[in-house]
Amino acid sequence: MTPRSSPSTARPEAPDIAELRRLRITHPELATAVDLQIALVELHRRAQSRLPVPEIPSQQAADAALAQGRPLLRFSDIPLSWSDLHYVLRETANLLRQFDLMEADAHNELTRLARDGDRLDPLIAAWFAASQAHEDAYAASVADAPESPLAPHSQAITLAVRPFVAKCADAVLPRLDLSGWQRGYCPLCGAEPDFAVLTASDDRLLICSRCTGRWPFDPAACPFCGNDDLLKLTTFASRESLYRIAACDACLRYVKAYDERRGTRPLLLAVDTIATLPLDAAAMQKGYLG
Fold this sequence. Notes:
Blueprint (H helix, E strand, L loop, with lengths): L14 H12 L4 H18 L10 H9 L14 H17 L5 H12 L1 H14 L6 H8 L9 H19 L20 E6 L5 E5 L5 E3 L16 E5 L5 E6 L5 E6 L9 H7 L1 H9 L5
Parallel strand pairs: 1-6
Antiparallel strand pairs: 1-2, 2-3, 4-5, 5-6
Helix pairs in contact: 1-2, 1-9, 2-4, 2-8, 4-5, 4-8
């Protein structure tokens, strides 16, 4: 007797992927950005599935570092295999080239670097350390140092490193008290924010541009220059007020935010960064920089 075929047991699609597909239908002008984002999300999840859980520092050790304004994560703390990082970097470069976000010469240079681990690996470690220099003497030495060969590839390097540092952020930051960290850079990896979420309790959590970690920050201050003069802060919103821009007239920087008080779901960073691309265009037309 031929056995009956069982019903499909395919897993339901991840919420952010499903939402991105809906966004592609409702906003066809964002289709290219959506397709790239879906490819990046899938690449990052494949990389993260192979990673071990990183070591979690004690609150005491974290407090000591944070009191000095020092991000918690050193590059050597990231549980990664270099071969995995090289693969993700090559695939990231290929995607950016495929979607016309990287010139052919830059793509060729980066893929050559990704095949030369002896040269690339120390460059990535140095790039990561340099990006963590904010308020100490090391920052001055970094400012005077020759430009890294990775500087022209900052977007690709950041995207390639993201799945590895995001795994650390997910494991470490929710277990720590970050209420005393009122700085405009990430307490875990030291990068700047590029998004925020406004919570139901009227808090603003900044979201790291590299590791996607979250930390609280004064909603009435600029995270980039610290300006808290309300006369020099500008806000504007999307038509339904679900998304907001907080812009600073002192340093001309801005950060986007998703307002969970008005939304029907929690923040989906992969979705909301794409849905707010029209707000980026509006902010840049007004002379602000992301």
